[in-house]
Structures are given as C-alpha cells and as structure tokens.
Amino acid sequence: MGHYLLDTCILIDFFRGNEKAAQFLEKLDAPPFLSALTVAELYAGVREGKERDSLDKLVQHFPVIPLDDEAAIKGGLYRRQYGKSHGVGIVDALLASSAENKDLILATVNVKHFPMLKNVYCPY
C-alpha cells in the first residue's frame, strides 16, 4: 500500500464505530496523513467532553499537512473547474491539491468529489 491522505469522512466513520473504517486504518502499514483542513472539519463538529478528548488523542497520532501556497492556488483552480460540473467544494478541492502536491493517495468514500485525481482510493 502507498501513503494515504485521509478524507474527513473516513475518520467520521471511524468515530461512529464503522467497522470497515477501523479495518482500513488497522491494515495500513504506514501512518496516514491528515490535512489541516480535515483537522478543522473534525473539530468543527466535535462535542466537548469525552468526544473532544478522544479527538485530541486521535489527531496526535497522524502527521498533519499544512495548507501551503501551491496547494491553495491549485485547489482554487480545481474548485473553479469542477465546482459546478461535479459539485466539488473548496475543502475537497484543497484536499485533492494537497494529496497531489505531496504525492499521496487520497482515501475517501466520496470518490465522485475528486474527479481531478488519479490517485484516489475508496477503501470500503
């Protein structure tokens, strides 16, 4: 297996007890990466208390990729190109550009949001 950048949906599924998400993460031979955008999306939906504590602990186990200028530019262009035709939002466009720039495979269950990528993988 290659190195992965995880889409937010996989970690949400994991937190909700989705066995297939857990199995995918357990089978990886290298720690997957998270985008700073995914981290922000996770924290935007977390509840204070045990859920927040669990998220704090989980995020510490992943290398986090910051959004850089190159990814921001390419992501904006992807949003412009695929926004209307494929419903690609800005966060998905930025995740795609980050994965490409770091030569990572984007792991997602929403493959249709990433028509611009060759290295996209739906694990379940």
Topology readout:
Elements: E1 4-6, H1 8-15, H2 19-27, E2 34-35, H3 36-45, H4 50-59, E3 64-65, H5 69-86, H6 90-101, E4 105-107, E5 120-121
Helix pairs in contact: 1-2, 5-6
Structural features, described:
This protein has a single domain, classed as 5'-nuclease (Rossmann fold, 3-Layer(aba) Sandwich). The chain has helices spanning 8-15, 19-27, 36-45, 50-59, 69-86, 90-101; strands spanning 4-6, 34-35, 64-65, 105-107, 120-121. The chain is mainly alpha-helical. It has a three-stranded parallel sheet. The longest helix is centred in the middle third of the chain and has 18 residues, at 69-86. The relative contact order is 0.21.
